[in-house]
Amino acid sequence: MVDKKKVEAAVKTALAEKGERKFKQSLELAVNFKDLDFKKPENRLNLDVILPVAPRKVKIAVFADTQLALDAKNAGADLVISGEQIKMYASDKKKQKELLEYRFLAAPQLMVEVGKSLGQVLGTRGLLPKPIPPGSNLKALIENARRTVNVKTKGKYLPTIHVIFGNEELPVEQLSDNAFSLLESIENKVGQPAVRSVFVKSTMGKPVRVSN
């Protein structure tokens, strides 16, 4: 396992060398792998990792009816979509485009309708909703959804992943915690020997290697 202090050192260097821009730069973790055959589906990564701190502002939408819809609104959901409204979104491309700004949770009984009506819009972008377990703490689910990032390998021949874990406005400590949490989850999945190298990079900066 990489030393957390070395991750923090790389984050500090990436921030120091990012340069001034007219926009808010993101911080990204890049992990290169070795001795993993990504042609085999079992070796490919597709992890949802709940970070200690939300890496950016994320809006949460909940598909729900009746009491669950009211509970979702009270728990802090940015948008609540009823079962009847799903069909409205399915027939309105402008509304569909607006949905791409959100991450989603859904009442179990609405999952099929969401998949049927909005699957082509949300599914191709990895945005299909997570079902809400009965009796769950909705406020905690929404908060966790804001802090969740997806770690996914792209293609059979690209032994690397890139994941945004924060932006330049977050404190170094929070950025370091997020980066380390990501790396820990990845190493737990593939094993530390399968990690060839790790880099931290700002949007416009040069990659900074995390020393072994």
Which features would summarize this protein structure in a list?
212 residues; alpha/beta; Ribulose 1,5 Bisphosphate Carboxylase/Oxygenase; Rossmann fold; 2 domains; 4-stranded parallel β-sheet; 36% helix
Would you spell out the secondary-structure blueprint of this structure?
Layout: H1 4-16, E1 26-33, E2 46-50, E3 59-63, H2 66-74, E4 79-81, H3 83-90, H4 93-99, E5 102-106, H5 111-122, E6 130-131, H6 138-146, E7 148-152, E8 160-167, H7 172-190, E9 195-202, E10 208-209
Parallel strand pairs: 3-4, 3-5, 5-6
Antiparallel strand pairs: 1-8, 1-9, 2-7, 9-10
Helix pairs in contact: 1-7, 3-5
Quick summary:
By secondary structure, the protein is of the alpha/beta class.
Describe what this molecule looks like in 3D.
This protein folds into two domains: 115 residues, 2-Layer Sandwich (Ribulose 1,5 Bisphosphate Carboxylase/Oxygenase), CATH 3.30.190.20; 88 residues, Rossmann fold (3-Layer(aba) Sandwich), CATH 3.40.50.790. The chain contains seven helices and ten strands. Strands 8-1-9-10 form a four-stranded antiparallel beta sheet. A four-stranded parallel beta sheet has the order 4-3-5-6. α2 links the parallel β3 and β4. The termini are close together.
Shape call: globular
Largest sheet: 4 strands, antiparallel
CATH architecture of the largest domain: 2-Layer Sandwich
CATH topology group of the largest domain: Ribulose 1,5 Bisphosphate Carboxylase/Oxygenase
CATH class of the largest domain: Alpha Beta
Helix content: 25-40%
Number of domains: 2
- Going across the major beta sheet, what is the strand order? 8-1-9-10
Distance between the termini: 9 Å
| Number of helices, counting only DSSP H or I runs of 4 residues or more | 7
- The proportion of residues in beta strands is 15-25%
Q: Mean pLDDT, rounded to whole units? A: 92
Low-confidence stretches: none
Which series of helices and strands comes N to C?
HEEEHEHHEHEHEEHEE
What class, by secondary structure content? alpha/beta
How many beta-strand segments?
Answer: 10
CATH superfamily label of the largest domain = Ribosomal protein L1/L10, rRNA-binding domain
